Amino acid sequence: MKTLIKICGLTNQESVDVAVQSGADLIGFVFAKKSPRCISPELASQLSGSIPTQVKTTAVMLHPSDSEAQEVFDRFLPDYLQTDAKDFISLNLPKGCHPLKVYRDLPQLHFNEMDPNELSLFEGQNSGAGELVNTDHAAEVAHHTPIILAGGLNPGNVVSILKAVQPKGVDVSSGVESELGVKDVQKIRDFINIVRDYDAMEQNA
Q1: Rg (CA), the chain
Q2: What are the tens digits of pLDDT across the range 168-204?
Q3: DSSP secondary structure, 40-103, as one string
Q4: How does residue 129 score in pLDDT terms, banded at 50, 70 and 90?
Q5: Which whole number is the average pLDDT over 82-89?
Q6: pTM of the model
């Protein structure tokens, strides 16, 4: 099985191009204003101009109002909107934009709350904090529903976490940075290559 790879929080053309050329499946642009990776919808539109259609774009938000989401959509139309699952109750997604519902590794979460037919994102308790999930809990969730696993992943730990959890995909942001909010293109390449090597090993096992 090919692992979906999402490189998130990209802010410049070089990192977008390297992620795409190295084999990323999803590119994430952050619009949460408190994030050091936050960019404008205009810049996201510009950066996504070179992204081929098979690579999907994601608008990453944190509890947006519908008007805040529409401000982004007016200038940048992503393939996915990523925010907390409960936020979608009040959001109107434009045609062609799909929900990527975020669920956090909290004690009260049960996988029955998640749609087994819908790709979701599962992460640590606090978005953007680089927190690893509890791998036992994440593995239980991944067994019942397709998840992209996020939080605390980096080139050094992604294989062990893939083995432990077996998610549909992985999401990395701070784990491929040289400093807060600044992507390191070699780390992006390394992360993607390591995941693809793992895929090849699993396929031949």
Answers
A1: 16
A2: 999 999 999 999 999 999 999 999 999 999 999 998 8
A3: -HHHHHHHGGG--TTSEEEEE-SS--HHHHHHHHTT---SEEEEEGGGGGG--PPTT-EEEEEE
A4: low
A5: 96
A6: 0.95
Q: Model confidence at 127, in pLDDT bands (50, 70, 90)?
A: low
Confidence at residue 128, expressed as pLDDT on a 0 to 100 scale? 60
Token pair, residue 152, equals 């605390």
Contact 170, 5 (CB under 8 A): yes
Please give the C-alpha separations between residue 177 and each of 72, 92, 183, 201, in angstroms, as whole numbers: 25, 33, 4, 27
Pull the structure tokens for residue 103: 């669920």
Q: How far is it, in rounded angstroms, from Cα 68 to Cα 169?
A: 28
Decide the pairing of beta strands 177-179 and 182-183.
antiparallel
- Where is 29: in which H helix or E strand? strand 26-30
Helix axes 135-144, 158-165, angle to 10 degrees: 50
